[in-house]
Amino acid sequence: MSNNITVFGQQNTFKMRMVVLLLSVMMVRVLLMDAVVESTAEFDPYKVLGVTRSASQAEIKKVYKRLAKEWHPDKNKNPEAEDMFIKITKSYEILTNEEKRASYDRYGQTDNTHPYGRGHHGFRHFHDNFYFDESFFHFPFNNKGGRDFADSKYTLHFNQYISEVVPDSFKRPYLIKITSDWCFSCIHIEPVWKETVQELETLGIGIGVVDVGYERRLANNLGAHQTPSILGVVNGKVSFFHYAVVKGHLMQFIEDLLPQRLVEKVTDKNNQEFLKSWHELNKPHVLLFDQVPSVPLLYKLTAFAYKDYVQFGYVDQGLSETADLLRKFNINTYAPTMLVFKEDVEKPADIIQAKGMKKQIIDEFISNNKFLLAPRLVNQKLFDELCPVKQFHRRRKYCVLLITGEEESFATGNEAFLSLASANTNDVLRFAYVYQRRQQPLCDQVVILERRNGAGKILYKPVSGGWNGSKEDKHKLLEELERLQKDPSILNNDAVLPELNNEFTSMFLIRWIYTAYDYLAEIIDDLLHNNWREVMPLLSLIFSALFILFGTVVIQAFSDSSEEKQPKTKAKEASKAENGSPNTSIVLDITYTSNLVKLRPGHINVVLVLTDPTKNILLSKFAKEVYSFTGSFTLHFSFLNVDKHGEWMAAVLEYAQDAMQIDTDEDEAGSRKLDYTGYVLALNGHKKYLCLFKPVYTGEDLDSKPEEEGGGSRSRKGTTRSRSTTLQIHHKLDRLGLWMERLMEGTLPRYYVPAWPGLDKITVNK
């Protein structure tokens, strides 16, 4: 009996304890609900910012800037500064969003971005958004200790994005998450994001996280106007992720970001065509053998990173069309295999095989095989990498350069040079060749050179006797290379090389078509997903450009037709009246208008005055004197035949009265025509002024001598005819270089003309 009483008492005690525990839990929940309701009631974005409910967007923005600067945690050391700053940011987000502001004005809360949940579903929302972590009922945001700092190492800032991420996106894609401290949906995608990021990092993909509360400028720059958002950046172009946040979708999104045609599928039929294209593309070729039907993402990413150096191909080992390739290169089908082919398409230059092929192993393998054994210098970038500028003694590099041609007659010498490069095992030496018709070579032979600075200065030594590919030529070159290893001072010649031409510029149109196709596909994708906010700026830019283009063409067409109609009519009539040839006047009209009357502001036309007998001599001297100034985009050079257009020359100098004092002594009588041969005019068509260069006469002035009686007329004619002999024609432009320097400095006197002479002054004299 006593035992039964004891058991009954124990059961009652246990029940009482359970009741007390349940009551305690209920009390805790009620208290937490009250705290949530109280916090909800306390949060008023209008009170936080100190604005009225009728405040405009401009007023809200102005107040926000002031409060954000005042309460920023980096500047305000108040312990409550961080919480206050978050409230200010959240209030600004609500009041600047029309939907959220309307929801708050109507219900006193927003849909899913309110910091403390919904009103009448407070407990349920509260329970769903609290989770057990290292602490009990740990809130996922709104404090430093509660926020998951796994994303902190990926945090991006605006300057970092512009200076680092955008340039690096041309080598690898970036996946960026847009989030904020008050985003409940961001917490829901966090597990998937972490798992995906962990795998993508091993593939070499860049990861970034942008907190809208702290980096609104960057978020606006990316076009991200809601949280959470996920986007990708490739080649500086931003693309948004529009699908469900699942690991498979994110992996496919990264793969779709990469450009098409990075990797070519290779079979028994096209393998020779693929490998033999090394000469045309000037790149090594890499073949990856694997059993999966689709190209692995890691391999695509590698192809994207090294697209400027290596051409990539993929062989599916499971296809019957690749059986011959597997037998030819003795491929082990149990592990992925990578082969590198250079000039020899029958034998791989390097090979790697591993079951778990990691990114670091592949990068090292490709980096060691980026160039052919003897690549062709097709642009300055390749030249800079093959033959770097000397920095210090241990990193000294020498380049053996063959200047050759594409014709069949050079084939023997080219093959001999390639065989010599293939046998080279010295890392200090780099072999390369250049086509003399496509570039500006140093000389027509084999050259050993070392670059001294980035401005093009080199030290070099030519190999005597040229290069025909004979055994004697190889022997002489090897001797010079052995001497170079012992004594670098044998490079005793110096020169400055011009920048190499880009031989692949003809492919620009193809690249432009591919880029346009990618942009068009992106626009269609945005339209399908109703992403009008991102599409509208681009469409606005396109329509604005088209409007400006067609508007300019129409206005220019009407203005040209009205302006040129009358002058052309007059020119035709004048030409017909003089020599009956209308075509000459039209040509003169076009040339005269484009080179002087309608010359762009800031541009100057430098005109040499000459005659038919002195044309060749003066033009040759003129070219030498002005050669150093031809790099200026504002200077134009031409000549004027004074025998045909003497009236125009006289008319211009007549306007410029000061310039007419150039030969006062010779022109006193006024009965002799001036000789303008060797004069140079700098004409500014827009500002209507000229600068004058007159030749420096070194001979004796025969006109100053008194004329002999009875033979005055003959003496004057003889003086005029003998001017070219007395005044050395090729010395007339000796001081033109100094005059050009003063012209560029702007220190020459300027003679202004009210208007340039008309067409009647430049027509051919009878």
Automatic annotation (TrEMBL):
One GO biological-process annotation of the entry reads: autophagy
Q: What does this protein do?
A: Plays an important role in regulating the size of autophagosomes during the formation process.
Q: Which domain of life is it from?
A: Eukaryota
**InterPro entries, A to Z:** DnaJ_C16_autophagy_reg (IPR052448), DnaJ_domain (IPR001623), DnaJ_domain_CS (IPR018253), DNAJC16_TRX (IPR043361), J_dom_sf (IPR036869), Thioredoxin-like_sf (IPR036249), Thioredoxin_domain (IPR013766)
Q: Which part of the chain is the J domain?
A: 44-108
- The protein's name is DnaJ homolog subfamily C member 16
Q: Which GO terms describe its cellular component?
A: endoplasmic reticulum membrane
Instruction: List the SMART domains hit by this protein, alphabetically.
Output: DnaJ
- What keywords would UniProt list here? Autophagy, Glycoprotein, Signal
Where found, per UniProt? Answer: Endoplasmic reticulum membrane
Signal sequence span is 1-33
Q: Where is this region: Disordered?
A: 702-726
Give the main localization category: endoplasmic reticulum
Q: Short name of one Pfam family for this protein?
A: DnaJ
Question: Its topology with respect to the membrane?
Answer: Single-pass type IV membrane protein
